[in-house]
Amino acid sequence: MDDPVAGKLGVRKAIAYLLDREALVNKVYEDTATPLYSIVPAGVTGHNTAFFDRYGARPSRTKAAAALRAEGITGKVKLTLWSTPSRYGPATDQEFRAIAQQLNASGLFDATVKSVAYDQYEKDIAKGKYGVYV
User: Fold this and answer.
1) Residue ranges of domains in the chain, CATH in brackets
2) Is 23 exposed, middle or buried (0-12, 13-18, 19+ CB in 10 A)?
3) Are 125 and 133 in contact (CB under 8 A)?
4) What is the DSSP letter of 134?
5) Nearest Cα residue to 11 out of 83, 73, 75
6) What is the pLDDT of residues 87-118, one digit of tens each?
7) The sheet that has 109-115: what strands, in order across it?
8) How many other C-beta atoms lie within 10 A of the C-beta of residue 77?
9) Running DSSP on this structure, what letter comes out for residue 133?
10) I want to staple 40 with a disulfide (CB 3.0 to 4.6 A). Which of 8, 46, 92, 128 is the partner?
């Protein structure tokens, strides 16, 4: 990954350590889903609990800060989360806003959410414009 921020492994690890998946399910999806600890949902072949096994069930600011320090990052990480609710629905922006709030609450990130129309979004993804996107 060539993105100057999301391309750093320590940044991606810090994000994974800070995500409160239970809170996302409760707040955004009103308990109509279960926390996802894998890229592949439960019930689908290939599902595992890789994120749970590596990053745990609860957020850890201590581990997130250590991941950033190991990457040589000492200040707040400026990060933009990109989405397109016109393609994936309004919950996409809600979820990204909740994630940004979680990251910012740690004091380790300065995260914002931006969304664009799907046609532009698709072109920008092809150009590699976004570091973090749905």
Assistant:
1) 9-133 (3.10.105.10)
2) middle
3) yes
4) -
5) 73
6) 887 888 899 999 999 999 999 999 999 999 99
7) 109-115, 77-83, 132-133
8) 21
9) E
10) 46
